[in-house]
Amino acid sequence: MYLEQLYSFGDVGRDPRGRVITVAYFALISADRPLRAGTDAAEAEWWAMDELPTLAFDHARILNYALERLRNKLEYTTVGFQLLPEKFTLTELQEVYEAILRKKSRQAQLSAKTISAENPEASAGVSKRWTTTSAALPVCRCSI
User: Fold this and answer.
1) 51 within some domain
2) Strands 22-28 and 2-9
3) Confidence band, pLDDT 50/70/90 cuts, at residue 135
4) Which listed residue, 67, 96, 128, 144, has the most CB atoms within 10 A of its CB?
């Protein structure tokens, strides 16, 4: 699981009940994992970002900020690998990027960008992690 502190939100008017400061985090986990919500969130469930219900206060803004951060991180880190199994296909990697970015990408561009000299972490483990099968299953059944 990947976990990162996102931002501290503290605008004066973000909660009409009084001044509230929120330190938000975001995590990358497969939507296949069951949710175990606490008693205060018994009805928690997975939602696609473009199908969110109405959220309280500025929570939609917080989620959109997290998504934008994740999209930007794909440009300079290998964070997308966090949603892949130990062995994966290029098609699976492409599906992760396309789900997060909400646009089609070309495999050649994706592989050159992700597994390159600029990303030694990715290129160092590529021979161990990458399979060469052409058939691919979805990485996760989540929509971002």
Assistant:
1) yes
2) antiparallel
3) very low
4) 96
